[in-house]
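Lecture 7, part B: from sequences to assemblies.

Below are the input chains for today's worked example.
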Amino acid sequence: MDKLIEYLQFPFVRYALIVGVLIALCSSLLGVTLVLKRFSFIGDGLSHVAFGAIAIAGILRVESSMVVVLPVTVISAILLLRQGQNAKIKGDAAIAMISVGALAVGYLLMNIFSTSSNLTGDVCSTLFGSFSILTLSKTEVVLCIVLSVLVLAIFMFFYNKIFAVTFDEAFSRSAGVDAGAYNLLIAVIIAVIIVLAMNLVGSLLISALVIFPALSAMRLFKSFKSVTVCSGVLASLCAFLGMVISILAGTPVGSTIVGVQILVFFVCMLLGRT
Amino acid sequence: MSLLKAEGLSLGYDSQAIIEDLSFTVNAGDYLCVVGENGSGKTTLIKTLLRLTKPLAGSISYGDGLLANEIGYLPQQTVVQRDFPASVKEIVYSGLQGRCGLRPRYTREEKELARENMERMGVTDFADKCYRELSGGQQQRVLLARALCAAEKILLLDEPVSGLDPVVTADMYSLIEKLNREGITIIMVSHDVIAAVRYASHILYIGNTVFFGTKEEFRKSDQGRRFLLLEEQMHG
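Predicted structure of the full complex, as structure tokens:
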């Protein structure tokens, strides 16, 4: 406990905790929609695209990789969600294809054009998250907070519409709701979240942030609102606990958070049975 | 003036027509049943009526101040809905969506309307229950209440009794009949011709040939006689 308080004296630890909890919260909110729309893997696919984009940004020696990564991921998200039913290659296959493709090309490019002496280390931290969340600059912290608040605000503003479109797209369309536009909105938000969350847990583990809180909450609650709220609360708690544990025990941040989420999921599953 | 008038419609995908030169009218208070075999284009017709797809040729005009998004639609259930965590109230409220525009919250009047429609469909008792825990018949009632929130004049029902047992099916039909008597125009898509002839006022048959007329005319038509004979043989 003393150790924790000692660590909390450092501003970068406090920043990391705030940013981590916010990112986890944002990811979990849309998680409910993605899980219910059978798009659980979209987070995974997009994060691999982001990985490929980071590799390209590295080669181009772009100052801030965000400039490349964010637009590439957003465009991929739009393409994936847009195609939907009338695509020649169906949803899951398209995601799998883009996901492994981007991963392979990204790693290949990194290998061919690498200037770093520690390539394996670089790749590993991009995939599984690094302690870079602890070394965020003030601008990055501000950017993360602004984007997270923006995502939260948009989600709350469009909450009823997101529910309607998730539950029954055909009906929503018939009632004159522009379901396509909301799907697009969901795609863009999820892409933003993924780029944000890459700092926290790395690209291989992002799906966990998106789906675990939603799945845990669905064991316990029965209305969309309570599931969404519960999922947000669980995500924030797990992110906080995971980060504190990882700081104290010196374990990797991303996998510790996911570890806590897995535990919580099993607890929820047991509670949900009774 | 008729609520809905289709003239010379051709429907299909990728400029390949499934149905050609289809014309019919729906007047206020009608109960139109659309029957036909699988693949005859019933679903495409629904989508066209809802203005979700464009007809290859022909036109649909809406009269009596009816707007395309004022058709209350009861779609077939999807796989997603079967384990969807949502309360009955949340689902019925979502029927108000079309009235909201960009406004994020429902007004008190809208909520009142939703409550009335829940009462009307007899689902008020499970307002806070989880949708996936209801029986098939109860779920359909919830979706009907939602459709009523979207529209007061006309309902478009896509196979409303598929997957329901005979008792619940009869219940559902009498509920729809009650709505029709209250002045709501019904368009129902079904492949249950017997029920269609029993409950509907008009029949639209689509298949290799097209028939549109009142049910009495349908009984006397070639298509009608052939179908009813077939059904009678099957049910002894």
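Note for the exam: The interface with chain A takes residues 50, 52, 67-69, 71, 73, 75, 78, 80-81, 84-87, 89-91, 93-95, 97-98, 100, 104-106, 128-130, 133, 146-147, 150, 156 of chain B (CB under 8 Å). Keep this in mind when comparing with the next example.
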